[in-house]
Amino acid sequence: MSFDSCFDIIGPIMVGPSSSHTAGAVSIGRFIYEWLGDVPEWAEITLYGSFADTFQGHGTDKAIVGGLLGMDARSHGIRESQEEAKKKKMNTMLNPMTDVGWRGHPNTAVIKAHLSGQTVIVVEGASIGGGLAEIRSLNNEPVRIAIAADAEIKQIAAGSKNREGRYS
Amino acid sequence: MMKERMKDIVDATEAGNSSIGEWMLAREVSRSGRAEEAVRLQMKERLQVMKQAVEKGKANTCESESGLSSGDAFRMNTYVQQGTPLSGTLISDAMLFAMAVSESNARMEVIVATPTAESAGILPGVLLSLAHNHQVSEDALVMGLFSASAIGYVFANHAMISGAAGGCQAEIGSAAVMAAGTIVEIKGGSPAQASDATAIAMKSLLGLVCDPLAGLVEVPCVKRNVIGTSIAFSAADMALAGIQSRIPCDEVIDTMHRIGSSMPSALKETSKGGHAVTPAGQKASAAMAARPCSF
């Protein structure tokens, strides 16, 4: 990973406790929110590697759900994101895949979500450190879309639809 | 863009007659194409968030999700208010502020990663204690954050700043050395002295392993943030006294990289070694595993 900006070192502004297990996880969920253009009706979240092993203490699950609701890494609401999901009628299912011999990035979430029974998105996202996330597959197609914690995720999601900034 | 080493930065500041912080600000303006004022304001916002995290954390006695860390900032605050702490007000305030931020981080409050969330207490602890006890202006603190980012930038690019990659020396270590160099700049030391403080501080933290209980950023992370502040002040005092590091800063950074790379993975944020496998650590892991899933 290459650090270039002073704000890569002093930042991001984020809810704790971990830049990779919390801040990066929010961005993966938020990418899906922006891609769909709304809060999904239903989301199935599968965690792998260290995400699966330590999600509870790090609030990785809350962070991903917060992102799916449109929150960002600094949103105070992340701690109570599950309650917010109930209010917004978003149904979630969580599968922590421990002991499956995961060979991908140690902090990976695969999220399948849909909106009003039509649009379905499947995303594999990795949290690669320092709050940076990377979308590694989008609808079963390999991609590499980097997302910094304070990035304009809306534009990144729009770009991924236009195949701009997208390469495999 | 070139990834400068510490010597490159010190040489550039000497040629340009600037501080390390001013150099980093100019570099950011050049790389981003943004106005200097906008870049300064973005950094100032980070300072404000640090201040809020300290204020909220000092009085908060709520438990973290795991229950492993809570109430110690409140205890420290009471102690600092009541008596005369052995280490004096400058260091004891820094310790208190660092603890307040680190406990807030464990509680999922808003903090600024400096350079990581796990080590987010040290820099605000040191800077806000300097502001409180030595009347350092807000502008000087913001410039200090640019100094700190320059030092962290060198470690991030030429060694590592994550516990998973290099152990705790890369997290608490990087944060403490960023603070050490920054103190020197704020107190009017030269860039070469800031570089010496950085090297001196890191030499005391080399080899520190990342061994958190149950994989959580709480034990021993919170107290390491607290102690990191006093290492930063000690190293800064030595550099300001004119004491040089006998090993050049960049060679210390290379040493950290080598040690981090050869450290066994059991000691790099996997909770498979160190304190994590003590009876206390195993108890914490079992308690976390038994918690009901919130879904």
UniProtKB/TrEMBL annotation, chain A:
<keyword id="KW-0411">Iron-sulfur</keyword>
<dbReference type="GO" id="GO:0003941">
    <property type="term" value="F:L-serine ammonia-lyase activity"/>
</dbReference>
<dbReference type="InterPro" id="IPR029009">
    <property type="entry name" value="ASB_dom_sf"/>
</dbReference>
<dbReference type="GO" id="GO:0046872">
    <property type="term" value="F:metal ion binding"/>
</dbReference>
<comment type="pathway">
    <text>Carbohydrate biosynthesis; gluconeogenesis.</text>
</comment>
<keyword id="KW-0456">Lyase</keyword>
<keyword id="KW-0408">Iron</keyword>
<dbReference type="GO" id="GO:0051539">
    <property type="term" value="F:4 iron, 4 sulfur cluster binding"/>
</dbReference>
<dbReference type="Pfam" id="PF03315">
    <property type="entry name" value="SDH_beta"/>
</dbReference>
<dbReference type="GO" id="GO:0006094">
    <property type="term" value="P:gluconeogenesis"/>
</dbReference>
<keyword id="KW-0479">Metal-binding</keyword>
<keyword id="KW-0312">Gluconeogenesis</keyword>
<keyword id="KW-0004">4Fe-4S</keyword>
<protein>
    <recommendedName>
        <fullName>L-serine ammonia-lyase</fullName>
        <ecNumber>4.3.1.17</ecNumber>
    </recommendedName>
</protein>
<comment type="similarity">
    <text>Belongs to the iron-sulfur dependent L-serine dehydratase family.</text>
</comment>
<dbReference type="InterPro" id="IPR051318">
    <property type="entry name" value="Fe-S_L-Ser"/>
</dbReference>
<dbReference type="InterPro" id="IPR005131">
    <property type="entry name" value="Ser_deHydtase_bsu"/>
</dbReference>
<feature type="domain" description="Serine dehydratase beta chain">
    <location>
        <begin position="5"/>
        <end position="95"/>
    </location>
</feature>
From TrEMBL, chain B:
<protein>
    <recommendedName>
        <fullName>L-serine dehydratase</fullName>
        <ecNumber>4.3.1.17</ecNumber>
    </recommendedName>
</protein>
<feature type="domain" description="Serine dehydratase-like alpha subunit">
    <location>
        <begin position="18"/>
        <end position="274"/>
    </location>
</feature>
<dbReference type="InterPro" id="IPR004642">
    <property type="entry name" value="Ser_deHydtase_asu"/>
</dbReference>
<dbReference type="GO" id="GO:0003941">
    <property type="term" value="F:L-serine ammonia-lyase activity"/>
</dbReference>
<dbReference type="Pfam" id="PF03313">
    <property type="entry name" value="SDH_alpha"/>
</dbReference>
<keyword id="KW-0479">Metal-binding</keyword>
<dbReference type="GO" id="GO:0046872">
    <property type="term" value="F:metal ion binding"/>
</dbReference>
<dbReference type="GO" id="GO:0051539">
    <property type="term" value="F:4 iron, 4 sulfur cluster binding"/>
</dbReference>
<dbReference type="GO" id="GO:0006094">
    <property type="term" value="P:gluconeogenesis"/>
</dbReference>
<dbReference type="InterPro" id="IPR051318">
    <property type="entry name" value="Fe-S_L-Ser"/>
</dbReference>
<comment type="pathway">
    <text>Carbohydrate biosynthesis; gluconeogenesis.</text>
</comment>
<keyword id="KW-0004">4Fe-4S</keyword>
<keyword id="KW-0408">Iron</keyword>
<keyword id="KW-0411">Iron-sulfur</keyword>
<keyword id="KW-0312">Gluconeogenesis</keyword>
<keyword id="KW-0456">Lyase</keyword>
<comment type="similarity">
    <text>Belongs to the iron-sulfur dependent L-serine dehydratase family.</text>
</comment>
<dbReference type="InterPro" id="IPR005130">
    <property type="entry name" value="Ser_deHydtase-like_asu"/>
</dbReference>
